[in-house]
Design brief:
Layout (H helix, E strand, L loop, with lengths): L43 E3 L6 H11 L5 E7 L4 E6 L1 H13 L5 E2 L23 H23 L4 H31 L5 H14 L3 H26 L3 H4 L5 E5 L5 E5 L8 E4 L9 E5 L2 E4 L1 H4 L5 E3 L4 E2 L4 E2 L4 E5 L7 H13 L4 H32 L3 H15 L2 H20 L2 E3 L2 H6 L5 E5 H5 E12 L5 H12 L5 H9 L7 E7 L3 E6 L2 E6 L1 H6 L5 H12 L3 E6 L4 E11 L1 H12 L3 E5 L4 H11 L3 E3 L4 H14 L3 E5 L5 H6 L2 E4 L6 H6 L2 E3 L5 H36 L5 H24 L3
Parallel strand pairs: 15-22, 15-24, 22-23, 24-25, 25-26
Antiparallel strand pairs: 1-3, 1-4, 2-3, 5-6, 5-7, 7-13, 8-11, 8-13, 9-10, 9-12, 14-26, 16-21, 17-18, 18-19, 19-20, 20-21
Helix pairs in contact: 3-4, 3-6, 4-5, 4-6, 5-6, 5-11, 6-25, 9-12, 10-11, 10-12, 11-24, 11-25, 12-24, 12-25, 15-16, 19-24, 24-25
Length: about 750
Amino acid sequence: MARNTPETSNAGIRAPAHPPPASCCAADHAAAAPLPIGPGAPNTYRIPTMDCSAEESEIRRAVEPIAGIRGLHFQLGQRTLRIDGADDALTKALAAIRKAGFVPEPVGAGPSPDAAGAPPHDHAHGHHGGSGYLRFAAALGFAIVAEGVSYFAPDTLGWKVAGMAIAALAIALAGLETYAKGLAALRHARLNINALMSVAVTGAFLIGQWPEAAMVMALYAIAELIEARAVDRARNAIKGLVDLAPAEAEVRQDGGAWLRVKASEIALGTIARVKPGERVALDGIVTRGHSSIDQSPVTGESIPVDKSPGDAVFAGTINQAGEIEFRVTAAASDTTLARIIHAVEEAQGTRAPTQRFVDRFAAIYTPAVFALAVAVALLPPLLLGWPWLAALYKALVLLVIACPCALVISTPVSVVSGLASAARRGILIKGGTYLENARLLKAVAVDKTGTLTEGKPKLVAFQPWGQADQARAGRLAKSLAARSDHPVSQAIAAGLPDPALEADDFRALLGRGVEGVVDGQRLVLGNHRLIRERQQADPALEAELGALEAQGRTVTLLADERGVLALFAVADTIKPSSIEAIAQLKRLGVAPVMLSGDNQATAQAVAREAGIDDARGGLLPEEKLRAIQDMRQRYGPTAMAGDGINDAPALAQADIGFAMGAAGTDTAMEAADVVIMNDNLGRIAETIRLSRRTHAVLWQNIGLALAIKLVFFVLAVFGAATMWMAVFADMGASLLVVANGLRLLRRAG
């Protein structure tokens, strides 16, 4: 599985727009007024009619050949395009976009962004509003009346003219936008659903099938509206995260009073407060108060986390207990929540491998079926003596079936639903490529410290040695350990309950431990090496030390001038979730391998406890790279799970890099392909399971869309399919694949 770079991205860190309703293959508007060009002009544009990857492909084909264009960065969810290139190339690119029938609007134009930095809501598609339902319902009513006139009214010129007028009214009510967009597409030699429907309905009306033409247009408009609402649910799935962070927060003024202020106007360092039951508006550090906070919207943790002064809080989380005050550490557009939204936005703009395949297939499929429809209209009457009107009608039915809408929409809806489902669990997947390819993983390399383990040493064993008194040895050891800033000494001090005594003449012994005078007694608290140098290690002590070190524990010894008084074993304990997470990976057929910089004995001890069979210790960062390469050859596609900073080279080398516990960590969010917002290693197994479900749904949708079209294609060729049946075949298939893709959202709970 090759490492893939997402094809599209977005710049900056900001909250997403609230995308307008979208239909899969809406067409295009004519060119508008010239756009500003120059050093100070924006290079990000909103294209209101860029609804799906079909329009994206058209714009790519128009702009990419222009010399001086360095990159195109699409964001379909917001209908935006950022163009990287020289000013003269940008001028040509905008002209090419307008020539293709699209209207690029500078993002900087119009209403100002909202508090979260999002572009304003686009209302370009007015027919998708509430009035659209009434208008389309009226169109359907007139179409039914036209059908009734055709079947039951006398066959006279007056009734026929009346029926045609009613049918024309139905077509006008339902199809004005379709005709406008279809004509624009035909002018630019593009075959999208609006062009195909315009030709099919017009042709049917002209050959005397006016009741059916009216019914087809009405059904198509209603189906497109329903589809647009369904697609919005997938595209706006992440919108719920935007609404999590309140727009305002209470902040302390200079005089001590509290005032509610817009979150976007709050400066860094400001003191804010949040009451029980309220949501935190911005990221910060608690300065006063104690509470428990539900962090599930950001990290996916199901259990509230206790917060005290010094602890971090995140925008969008829910304060459940006491009132707390916190110092703001991130602007509204740069909170952890905003970065989550930005990451999912970027991921929505990328194309998964299956989606790229579908786009290539659709680019061939539609013209091929259109050519076939032309052949059906011309060849049978010329070669087989078919009636011209019958052949033309079959050709029009084929035109409706030719629309690749269900195919084109089948993949992005599923991918976006999968990405949003993962985000709700605190899993940020940076593109459809990684979402789809995670199912192929055969091995996961897991860093030990901070990934499998807590990352903080703890005192796990304490025993007196020789004739020493345990309580006194503990007080003496704590007196020295409390004066040291070494993590092992701090763990010993925190793990001993007795109060510390005063330590005099304290000094550090570099690489060995510490020394001082406690209660008139000169003592050392140091490692195995120090005791050997003092020649205080007898065979019994060596045996005990060897046994403890074989368990992966770091042993510190307390000694006076006569000998060793006590042994303190410190270890980085395994997270409670790690053992089950490793078991889940094994059940999925994925081999877990531990990579650690600790010695081999420690690595093996921790691996045994976690249930990992393959443990590799004593690795430098460059040696971890070679370990990843070896795992690829031995197992196949390999992922790396680490903290996203120290393990950055290995994360980049792996097929998929998982950054663990990255809430609030910019570096971790940049280093990996998948970011786990809490420390739960089990999220890797969830990602793999979601990838497998998403891949299955993708191919279910493709198979469903092709099967339905094949059935109606055969029916059309043999004269058993009508135009309204073809509309149901196309739009029905679209609605089915959208509903199937949305199942991934429902699994998120």
